[in-house]
Amino acid sequence: MNNRQIMILKTLRSKSEHIAAKDLAAVYNVSTKTIYNDIDSINAFISKFNITIEKTPRKGIIINDNNKFQKLASVLNDLENSKAFDPQVEDREEYLFKELFINRHKLNITSYEDNAYISEGSARRDIKKFEKLLAKAKLSFHRENGLFSLMGNESYVRKFTKDYLHSLIDSSNFEDIETLSRFFDLKTILDCKNVIIQLGKKYNYDLSQRYFNTLLIDLLVQINMIQIGYFLEPSKNSLSFDMNHFEVFFYAREVLTQLLKTKEEIPSAEIEALSFTLLAVGFKINNIDYNTRLNKSVESLIQKVSKILDIDLSHDLHLRDMLISHIGPMIFRLQKSISVNNPVVEEVKKEYSVLYNIVWLSVRELTEAFNIKMTDDEAAFLAIHFQIAVEKIHKPMNILVICPHGIATSELLISKLKRVISDTDKIVKADYEDLDRAKLSNIDFIVSSVKLNEVSIPVFEVSPVITAQEMNLIQSFYYKSLNNNRLAKFGERSELKNNLIRELIGENILIHSKSKTMEAIYEDMTKIAHEENLNNPLFIESIKKRESMGSTGVYTGISLPHCDPKQVTKSQLGVITLEQPMLWGKNLIKVVFLIAIAEEDIESTKQILINLYRKIEYKNYIEELWKASTAEELVFTLINWREDDVRK
C-alpha cells in the first residue's frame, strides 16, 4: 500500500460513522474514482485479517467491525515500520529532479501520484513544467509503458543539472553544503571538498572562495554520473593534445581517480571536462601566446573604459592584475557555459548603471577575440573591478538629504541630484527628527528643505520643489569639491552618455551625400557600416525589410532605418546627411540616422537612444545636423544641441 492508502485506513479506523468518498477526495486532492480504487487496494490487503471496508450507496464508506481498532493497530504499525511504501514527496519539483536527473531513474507516473498524494492531472502538470525547461536545453522526456525517462546528449543533461543546482544555491553562502546535501550524500560532498584542498596544495592551486560552489557542483554531478554509468562523448577540441594544458589535465585526472577510488583509466573526455571547469575557476595557464593575447585584450579594455570615462586608469597596475586574474577564467567559463552566480548583479546594475553599461559596450572586442558571449553576472564582476579603481581616484561623496514634505518631493529632489553626481557617490535620506542620530562625520554636504541650526558641514537650504538656481549652486559646489576637472566629467551623467554616443558612432558618418534614391542610400550605408556587420549579407537586407513594413521617415526631416538586432554583429550608430532633401515614404528627409544595435546591447544603449529620440521631434535640431559641414561639427551638434535652442 502507498502512503495515501495507509492514511485513508487510519482515517476510517478512527471513524464510527460513514464518510463520503468525495470528502476523502477533497482531503487528498484526488478524484472520487481514485478514492474508490484505493479502497479496493486496501480491501485486498486487509482481507487476510478478516476486515472489510464497506461502500454503501448514499451513505459512504465505513469499516463495519467493532474490533477494528485493536485488529488494525498491529497491521498499521507493521506497515509504518516496513519499507513497503515510499516516503511522502514533500517538495515535488525537487523529488522529480533528483529521481530523473541525479538518480537517472525511470519515473512511474502512477507511483508518483500515489506517493505525492496528487491527482493524475497534477502529476502531469509537474512533468509538463520540467518539459518546458528541457525544451530550451535541447532535452526531452521519453515515455514508455507509463514510465518517464530523460533523453538527450549527456553534456546537455549535465549542464541542465548543474544550472538547476546553481539556481537553488544560497548565493551569500560560498560553501552551501546544506543545499547540496539534499541531493548528494554528505560524505561524498566532504570527500570532494577535501580532495580539492589537498591536491590544490600539491599543484599550487588556491581556489578562490567565490568559485567553490561552482567547482563542487561540477565535481559532484560528474562523479555521480560516472558512478551510475553515464559518460561524456569525446570532445572535438581535445585538451590532451595541447602541451600547455597538461598540468591541469594531470590535476583533474588525480582528483577523479581519488574520488572514484578506481585503478582503471578514466575516460579522457571526463578528465577534459573537469580540466575546463578548473580553468574556469582560476587554474592558471602557462602559455606565453595565450597570456600575451589576454594581456593585450585587458589593456585594450582598460583604454576603452578610460576613454569613455575620461579618466586615465592605464597606470592602475592593481586593476590590470585583477582583470587578468578574473578574465582568464571567465573566458573558459563562457566558452563552456559554466555558470557562476554573481549575488550583487542587480545591485550593480541599479547603483552603478552607467559604469555597468560602459563596461558592457567596451568588452565587445574581448568577446569577439575569444569567441564568447558576455553575461550579466560576468559584466557585473568586471564593473566592480572598475568601480574600485575609479573610487581610488575619485573618493565617493556622501550627501545627506533632509526633506519633511513627503515622499514625492524628497524623491524629486534626489532624482535631480542624481543627474549631476557620480555613480560612485551616495545619497542618504533622513527625516528632520533623525538628524541628531545621523552620523554627520561621514557626510560631505547636506541638502535640506528645512532650516538647520548649528551644523558644522556645508548645508544647502532649498525649496520643497528645488529651483534651477538652487540646483546650480549645489552643482557648482560639487564640482569644486572634486579632485580635478577630469573627474568632474565623470560626475556628469550626460557627459558619459555623450562619450558612449561617440563610441557608437565612431567614424560612421557621411556628409552631403549626393544620393537621391533609397537604393542609393542603402549603398551609402555600406560605407558607414562596420566591416563585421557587412560580413553578414542579411545586415542590409534586414534594414530593407523593416522599411518595407513601414517607412521610418519622420516629418521633421530625418529617417531612422534600423537593422534587426539578430543580424548585428557589432553595435553601431551612423549618420548620413544629404546634399538635397529626398522623399522617404511620405516625408521629405535631409538626414538618415542608422541604428544597428545587437541583441545583447539593447539594454545598455536604451537610455542613450531614448535621449536621441527626444530630440528628433524638433525640426530645428534636424536642420542643424543637416547644416554640419564636417563629421566633427555633426557629432558636436548631435550631442550638445538642447531643446532650449528652439526658443533662442
UniProtKB/TrEMBL annotation:
<dbReference type="Pfam" id="PF00874">
    <property type="entry name" value="PRD"/>
</dbReference>
<dbReference type="GO" id="GO:0006355">
    <property type="term" value="P:regulation of DNA-templated transcription"/>
</dbReference>
<dbReference type="InterPro" id="IPR007737">
    <property type="entry name" value="Mga_HTH"/>
</dbReference>
<feature type="domain" description="PTS EIIB type-2">
    <location>
        <begin position="397"/>
        <end position="486"/>
    </location>
</feature>
<dbReference type="InterPro" id="IPR036095">
    <property type="entry name" value="PTS_EIIB-like_sf"/>
</dbReference>
<feature type="domain" description="PRD">
    <location>
        <begin position="289"/>
        <end position="396"/>
    </location>
</feature>
<keyword id="KW-0804">Transcription</keyword>
<dbReference type="InterPro" id="IPR016152">
    <property type="entry name" value="PTrfase/Anion_transptr"/>
</dbReference>
<dbReference type="InterPro" id="IPR013011">
    <property type="entry name" value="PTS_EIIB_2"/>
</dbReference>
<dbReference type="InterPro" id="IPR013196">
    <property type="entry name" value="HTH_11"/>
</dbReference>
<dbReference type="InterPro" id="IPR036634">
    <property type="entry name" value="PRD_sf"/>
</dbReference>
<dbReference type="Pfam" id="PF00359">
    <property type="entry name" value="PTS_EIIA_2"/>
</dbReference>
<dbReference type="Pfam" id="PF08279">
    <property type="entry name" value="HTH_11"/>
</dbReference>
<dbReference type="InterPro" id="IPR036388">
    <property type="entry name" value="WH-like_DNA-bd_sf"/>
</dbReference>
<dbReference type="InterPro" id="IPR011608">
    <property type="entry name" value="PRD"/>
</dbReference>
<dbReference type="GO" id="GO:0008982">
    <property type="term" value="F:protein-N(PI)-phosphohistidine-sugar phosphotransferase activity"/>
</dbReference>
<keyword id="KW-0010">Activator</keyword>
<keyword id="KW-0808">Transferase</keyword>
<dbReference type="Pfam" id="PF05043">
    <property type="entry name" value="Mga"/>
</dbReference>
<dbReference type="InterPro" id="IPR050661">
    <property type="entry name" value="BglG_antiterminators"/>
</dbReference>
<dbReference type="InterPro" id="IPR002178">
    <property type="entry name" value="PTS_EIIA_type-2_dom"/>
</dbReference>
<keyword id="KW-0677">Repeat</keyword>
<keyword id="KW-0805">Transcription regulation</keyword>
<protein>
    <submittedName>
        <fullName>Transcriptional antiterminator</fullName>
    </submittedName>
</protein>
<feature type="domain" description="PTS EIIA type-2">
    <location>
        <begin position="502"/>
        <end position="642"/>
    </location>
</feature>
<dbReference type="GO" id="GO:0009401">
    <property type="term" value="P:phosphoenolpyruvate-dependent sugar phosphotransferase system"/>
</dbReference>
